[in-house]
Amino acid sequence: MNESVLLFSVITTLLYAVGTVGFLIYVIRTEKVIHRIAYGFLLAGFLSHTLGLAMLVSQLRQMPVTTLPQTFSLFAWAIVGSYLAFQLKFNIRILGTFVSPLAVVFMLLSSAIPGRVIPNSQLFKSFWLTLHVATMFIGMAIFALAFCAGIMYLLQERQIKSKSFGLLYRRLPSLEVLDSLNYVCLTFGFPLITIGLISGFVYAGAVWQSFWHWDPKQILSVVTWLIYAVLLHERLAVGWRGRRAAIMAIIGFSVILVTFVGTSVILEVHHSFKLG
Description:
This protein is mainly α. The protein has helices spanning about 5-30, 30-60, 70-90, 95-110, 125-160, 165-170, 175-210, 215-240, 245-265. It starts with a helix and ends in a 10-residue tail after the last helix.
């Protein structure tokens, strides 16, 4: 990573961090101006992040997913971008309080974890890899929003049942709105990770002459897909709503974190991009 890309990474992390502080302050003092400032910092961070990634892609001439720092940074970008898009529809101001810390954590991880230098290769310029990365990262980012909506749902439900109408009760939206956000995230995220899995299998077949390798990340990715497939089926066929859907959204994203972070850091897998 050259100095320009590194500078954009530092600026982005700082902007996301300031935005996160602003959102936390908004929980205490629900003034619109505080939310606008926090949202502005997050948006500025996203623009800085986009420019930094564009510069990195221009330098690498391939997808920026060959090292862990690159993938963590890309995931943070996808999370913030998904939040900004969904906020336009739902306008849930407190959602940023739950989403922005995730972006900060992944940006810090991208800076803290060393990454091996991977030489440029035609393998990383495949259409199938581009499709796989784009759909999987955006799909996972949308499920991060569903994860946040699930946490907010459980918090709000607990306060209602206990009749403890404290600070968060007045800040959180209704259970219906949170359940609706969860469902919309599911309907957008599930097709994306489905396309991501299929394109990933096609890419694996082209590169390693086999669609399946019993790779830990492959196995957990399929497990993740099954969790969300069950959730979508139960919502459509059985009418699952509310608490069950919220818990499943939390479980699903927890498996994503294990798949995305755990296997990459701990295990040697094909997704480590060891060539040859």
